[in-house]
Design brief:
This protein has 2 domains: 107 residues, Winged helix-like DNA-binding domain superfamily/Winged helix DNA-binding domain (Arc Repressor Mutant, subunit A); 67 residues. It is 58% helix and 6% strand. A 3-stranded antiparallel beta sheet has the order 1-3-2.
Length: 214
């Protein structure tokens, strides 16, 4: 549920004011049905829920010069706070009961500053490393005591393998961000897309065709 809330709030934030069909079309273009287990109907349901909870407000797009009159949505002040809170939590916290939360957060990581993104990944790296050490100690203890069936230890080792893989990704992603990949909030060209398949950052040397080159 948290991942769905984050995705819908973030999609509205990108286009606001945005009508429901636009939000649905955008999220489905990200293939959320497969990696976030979100179906089209749940997107509309979440729009209604977020509006009911005061995180979104309905606006008439005719009033803002966006085509024919239709109901659209934009974030309220509380919605902005909720979005940033969910985004931060998605990147910092190990949400074992919501495996879709981290992927959802990655969809909007560049809405943070570069420093905030690095700090979030550093926090996640430390948390994962601590969790791995704890699970390794528990696995050794169970093997020494021999009071549990063998599959119990194998399940713990499987969890360790998953976390170790994620730890490698976190470290590599942090290095890419620190090296200047992507455009983050407050940086030149932050609202524009990739150039020749590369998301230039402020530390990159601009090349011909980059919008920053006059």
């Amino acid at each position: 549920m948290s991942a769905t809330r984050l995705l819908v709030l973030g999609a509205v934030r990108i286009f606001q004011p945005a009508h429901g069909y636009l939000v649905r079309r955008e999220l489905l273009s990200w293939d959320v049905e497969n990696w976030a287990a979100i179906n089209p109907g749940s997107i509309y349901n979440m729009l209604r829920t977020l509006t009911r909870d005061g995180l979104l407000e309905e606006v008439d797009t005719a009033d803002v010069g966006k085509g024919p009159a239709r109901v659209a949505y934009r974030l309220t002040a509380d919605g902005e706070t909720a979005f940033l809170g969910l985004l931060t939590s998605a990147l910092w916290d190990i949400a074992e009961r919501d495996p879709y939360l981290l992927p959802a957060g990655l969809c909007f990581v560049t809405m943070l500053t570069r420093k905030q993104a690095v700090e979030a990944l550093e926090g996640r790296e430390a948390a994962i490393a601590l969790r791995v050490r704890s699970m390794e100690a528990r696995s050794r203890m169970l093997l020494e005591q021999r009071r549990v069936p063998p599959h119990t230890v194998e399940l713990i080792d499987l969890g360790i393998a998953h976390l170790t893989g994620e730890l490698s990704w976190v470290r590599a992603a942090k290095e890419r961000i620190e090296a200047g990949h992507y455009r983050f909030a407050g940086e030149p060209g932050a609202a524009s897309g990739p150039v020749d398949g590369h998301w230039y950052g402020p530390l990159d040397k601009p090349t011909q065709g980059d919008p920053r080159v006059n």
